[in-house]
């Protein structure tokens, strides 16, 4: 009888330990921001497409690059916290610059990339609403849109500070698609399907897989969460018709990668580091004109799209 009691006690203690441990592993990843708190950030977004055609059969080579890049530093000030935990934040631009590079001429040389700093935006603000799940929406951008009203800069500003772009830029996809965000264990995953970015040669849907890796305390006692993003890499022949212009004697290949990481101070609501990078390459090889001592004609199309957001001390 005594042995049975010990056995039952041991089981109970084990179960208690299991439930206590299970609870302690759960983390509330909801975005919690304090009224009047201010945090400085740097945002960067870049899309680059390169088309390189090596033609030993014709003794020709061309290399064309198209690049769009945007950089902004800003202060985010929490103006108000609503009952559901959503916040109204004021985004004040400290600096804004963009780079546009495009091919020039049939020979494939690229004109020098020119970076434009739009100084008129410095000090101008717009307002957003940010939910506890990290979903953002534009509230008011009239001041920042009115700062630049003519020329190419105006077109860039109208697009960059438009409602859709603002929502996309300030939303936190690493959080917004998670279920039970207030109670997540290490190792839990959630997914979201996303269309490939504009400018990509072959459009496709990506299933982004987010994994909550860990939450640990830093030296100040704040809890730091790490979420990683990955997709299943694609590799294999290029879809039919992609290189149809080169005939049916070519060999083609495609491969891509898409990954990211999100580091977040759960205690303060500060995003420490957030980036996602998509890289894709298409290669077509034409051996029909290849001579014994030459490499085959090869067309390589490379595409890279990335964004990053990080806190600035």
Q: Radius of gyration, rounded?
A: 25 Å
Q: Runs with pLDDT <50, length 5+?
A: 1-24, 105-112
- Major pleated sheet: 13 strands, antiparallel
Number of domains: 1
* Beta strands, count: 13
Briefly, what is this?
The protein has five helices and 13 strands. With 313 residues, the protein is an alpha+beta fold.
Can you describe this structure?
- The protein has one domain.
- Helices cover 16% and strands 48% of the residues.
- The chain has helices at 2-25, 142-146, 151-160, 163-170, 173-176, and strands at 38-55, 60-81, 87-101, 114-117, 125-130, 136-140, 189-195, 205-217, 223-230, 235-236, 250-265, 270-286, 297-312.
- The termini are far apart.
- Residues 1-24 and 105-112 have low confidence and may be disordered.
Keywords:
313 residues; 13-stranded antiparallel beta sheet; 13 strands; disordered N terminus
Write the layout of secondary structure elements.
Elements lengths: L1 H24 L12 E18 L4 E22 L5 E15 L12 E4 L7 E6 L5 E5 L1 H5 L4 H10 L2 H8 L2 H4 L12 E7 L9 E13 L5 E8 L4 E2 L13 E16 L4 E17 L10 E16 L1
Antiparallel strand pairs: 1-2, 1-13, 2-3, 3-4, 3-5, 5-6, 7-8, 8-9, 9-11, 10-11, 11-12, 12-13
